[in-house]
Design goal:
Elements lengths: L2 H9 L1 H12 L7 H10 L13 E7 L3 H12 L4 E4 L30 E3 L5 E3 L7 E6 L2 E6 L5 H4 L9 H8 L5 H16 L6 H4 L5 H12 L5 E2 L6 H9 L27 H7 L3 E4 L2 E8 L4 E8 L5 E14 L2 H15 L11 E4 L3 E7 L14 E5 L5 E6 L11 E7 L7 E5 L4 E5 L6 H18 L2 E2 L8 E2 L2 E2 L3 E3 L18 E3 L15 H19 L3
Helix pairs in contact: 2-3, 4-11, 4-14, 7-14
C-alpha cells in the first residue's frame, strides 16, 4: 500500500481520534497537531487495525523473540494463533526517517512518556506517544523494553552470542541439556536470523574506525578480542556506505530502530513467515491488562490503542492456550498481578522472583584516537575476563553523540548469579512493580571498571568523560531477565505451575543472567526448544 493510500484512508478518522484524545484521553496525550505531524512522517501506523477474534485456540502476548518463535511454530502446526502486541507495526524505508534518533528523539522513540535520559546523560523532552522503546523506571534501575511489533529485535544492537557451556550449565543445571541446545536449537535460530560477524570490508570502512581502535586498545592491554555474531543485514549496511540507502547503521542509529531495515528484525523472518501461513495474525496496538481462568478457557481483558497512546476500545478475548511473551517485565507483571489479585490464585510463590539485569553496564573512556567522523552502531567484537565475576565487554558506539569525539564505548555484562529483584503487587494501583536493591549492580560495576581501567592505563587514555559522564554506569538494563524462572515458576519447558495450557516463553524464564553475553540468542533457542516440546505433547490428539 502506498503512502498516499494510507493518508487517504486515515485522513477522515484522524481528526476525530485526535479530538477524542484531547477531550477524554490523558492530559499528556498528543493533540491534533502532534498526530498530524506523526501521520505525515509515518502514515502506516495510523492505518485501521481490525479487532481480534473473540476466541482463538492460542493467544501469544508479545511479538519479541519468544513470541514470534511461538507464533511461527504454532502456525506451522496448524494451530490458529492470535498474537497481541501493545506497540505499533512500524514499516521500513530506504529513504524515509521512520524512527526517531538518539540525537533528536521525539514521540516515535519512547513509549508513553514525555522525557528520557539518554546514555549521553542529557535529558530530552518530547511528545507523549506510543514510541518503540519503553524505559520503565524502577527506583535505581531503568529497564529498557521493546514496545513495537518485533519487540526487542527492533531496538537492540543486534549482537547474538551463545554462552560458554560451563556458564550455561551453572545457570540451568539439569533442567536444560546443553548438548541439545548446542546441536539443535542455537543453530536453528542462527539460520533463521542469518547471524554473521561483521565482514572485513565493513569493519575496515570509515564509520567503524572506533571498532578498530577498540580492538587495538584491548590488544595492547593483553586482551584477545573475538568477532561477535550479529543480526544486522550487512548488504543493507553496504548500501548505506555506497549511498543507495539513507544512512542509519553507519551513523549510530539502533536503540530507537533502523529505518531502512538494516537489522534483520523479527518482522523480516519469524513473524513474516508465521503470518504467511494464514494461521497466525499479529494485532498491533493491543495491550492485555488482566488474565482470568474459568476452569476451561483463559479470558484476557484487552485495550486497543491509537498511536498517540489513547485507549480507543476495550474488550475481552478468550483462548484455550495462552503464551506469555511480553518480556520479563510484562509477563511477570501480568502473572504477579493475576495471582495476588485473586484471578489466578494457584500460581506459586516463585512467580515474580529471580529477576536480574544480566549484569549490564555502560562503559566509556575518552581522549582516544579519532579514526572516523561517525561511529557505526553494529558491534564488531568482544573480550571476556574470567574471574570471581566473569565480565564481557563488547565494542559499542556512543549513542546520542552525532560525531566521533574520541569516546570509546563498551557494553559490559557481568555473570552475576547473586543479586536479584522481585515483583510486588500494589493493591492501590492494581499493578505489580519491580523492586530492585539499590546496590544490586555494585559488583558488576567493579568488575567492568577493572577491565576498563586496565585498557585505559595500557593506552594512556582517560576513563569516563571528565565533567560529563562516569566511567561505568549500571543504572539501566537492556536485558531484563527472570520473574517466571524455569524449574521454579514453571517446569523445564515453560509450563506455568498451577494452571493448564499456560506458558512462559520469553526472557522471564531465565534466572537473571545468560552468562555474560547478550540474552537474545538464548531466549530464542529456549523458545524453539520449549515450543517444540509443547506442540508435540500438549496439543497431541
Amino acid at each position: 500500500m502506498s503512502r498516499r493510500e494510507f493518508l487517504k484512508r486515515t485522513a477522515l478518522g484522524l481528526p476525530a481520534m485526535a479530538m477524542g484524545s484531547m477531550l477524554s484521553g490523558p492530559a499528556r496525550a498528543a493533540g491534533l497537531l502532534t498526530n498530524l505531524k506523526y501521520q505525515a512522517l509515518v502514515p502506516e501506523i495510523y492505518a485501521s487495525i481490525p479487532k481480534p477474534p473473540v476466541y482463538s485456540q492460542a493467544i501469544v502476548i508479545g511479538s519479541g523473540f519468544g513470541g514470534s518463535i511461538a507464533a511461527l511454530r504454532l502456525a506451522n502446526a496448524g494451530i490458529q494463533t492470535t498474537v497481541l502486541e501493545r506497540g505499533s507495526h512500524w514499516p521500513n524505508s530506504t529513504s524515509r526517517q521512520i524512527f526517531a534518533t538518539d540525537v533528536l528523539p521525539d514521540g516515535r522513540g519512547y513509549w508513553q512518556r514525555t522525557s528520557a535520559k539518554e546514555l549521553n546523560t542529557l535529558t530530552y523532552a518530547f511528545d507523549y506517544f506510543n514510541g518503540v522503546l519503553d524505559v520503565t523506571s524502577c527506583g535505581t534501575i531503568d529497564v529498557w523494553r521493546g514496545a513495537c511489533v518485533g519487540g526487542g529485535s527492533v531496538v537492540f544492537t543486534g549482537v547474538m552470542i551463545q554462552p560458554q557451556q560451563s556458564y550455561f550449565e551453572t545457570i540451568f543445571g539439569d533442567l536444560v541439556d546443553w548438548n541439545d541446545m548446542n546441536a539443535t536449537y542455537y543453530p536453528r535460530v542462527r539460520t533463521m536470523l542469518n547471524l554473521n560477524p561483521m565482514p572485513a570490508d565493513i569493519y575496515n570502512s570509515g564509520p567503524f574506525g572506533h571498532s578498530r581502535i577498540w580492538d587495538q586498545q584491548s590488544a595492547k592491554a593483553g586482551y584477545v578480542t573475538t568477532p561477535t555474531d550479529s543480526i544486522f543485514n550487512w548488504d543493507v549496511v553496504r548500501s548505506e556506505l555506497k549511498g543507495t540507502s539513507r544512512p542509519s547503521a553507519i551513523i549510530g542509529e539502533s536503540n530507537l530502530g533502523n529505518s531502512n531495515g538494516a537489522k534483520f528484525d523479527l518482522n523480516q523472518n519469524y513473524l513474516k513467515q508465521a503470518q504467511a501461513t494464514g494461521k497466525a495474525t499479529v494485532y498491533a496496538c493491543h495491550e492485555v491488562t488482566r488474565i482470568r481462568f474459568d476452569g476451561s478457557r483463559y479470558t484476557l481483558d484487552t485495550n486497543r490503542y491509537a498511536p498517540d497512546g489513547t485507549v480507543t476500545d476495550s474488550y475481552s478475548l478468550t483462548c484455550d492456550y495462552l503464551f506469555l511473551a511480553a518480556g520479563s517485565m510484562g509477563s511477570s507483571e501480568l502473572m504477579v498481578a493475576a495471582r495476588d489479585r485473586g484471578d489466578l490464585p494457584l500460581l506459586n510463590e516463585h512467580v515474580g522472583e529471580g529477576w536480574g539485569t544480566n549484569g549490564d553496564s555502560r562503559v566509556v573512556r575518552s581522549f582516544s584516537p579519532i579514526a572516523s567522523i561517525t561511529q557505526g552502531s553494529p558491534c564488531a567484537s568482544m573480550l571476556h575476563q574470567p574471574g570471581a565475576l566473569p565480565t564481557t565487554l563488547e565494542n559499542w558506539y556512543t549513542p546520542a553523540i552525532p560525531i566521533n569525539l574520541g569516546i570509546i564505548g563498551s557494553l559490559g555484562m557481568g555473570f552475576d548469579m547473586t543479586n536479584r529483584g522481585r515483583f510486588v503487587y500494589n493493591a492501590a494501583t492494581g499493578k505489580a512493580a519491580l523492586q530492585w536493591p539499590a546496590n544490586g549492580n555494585d559488583a558488576v560495576v567493579a568488575a567492568a571498571r577493572a577491565v576498563n581501567n586496565k585498557i585505559a592505563a595500557a593506552n594512556n587514555v582517560v576513563t569516563g568523560v571528565p565533567l560529563f559522564t562516569a566511567d561505568v554506569d549500571a543504572s539501566f538494563t537492556a536485558h531484563p531477565l527472570g520473574g517466571l524462572v524455569l524449574g521454579k515458576a514453571t517446569d523445564a519447558y515453560g509450563r506455568i505451575a498451577g494452571y493448564p495450557r499456560l506458558y512462559a516463553i520469553d526472557g522471564a524464564t531465565i534466572p537473571g543472567t545468560t552468562g555474560a553475553v547478550n540474552p537474545s540468542l538464548t531466549i530464542s533457542a529456549l523458545a524453539e526448544r520449549n515450543i517444540e516440546k509443547i506442540i508435540a505433547t500438549d496439543f497431541a490428539v
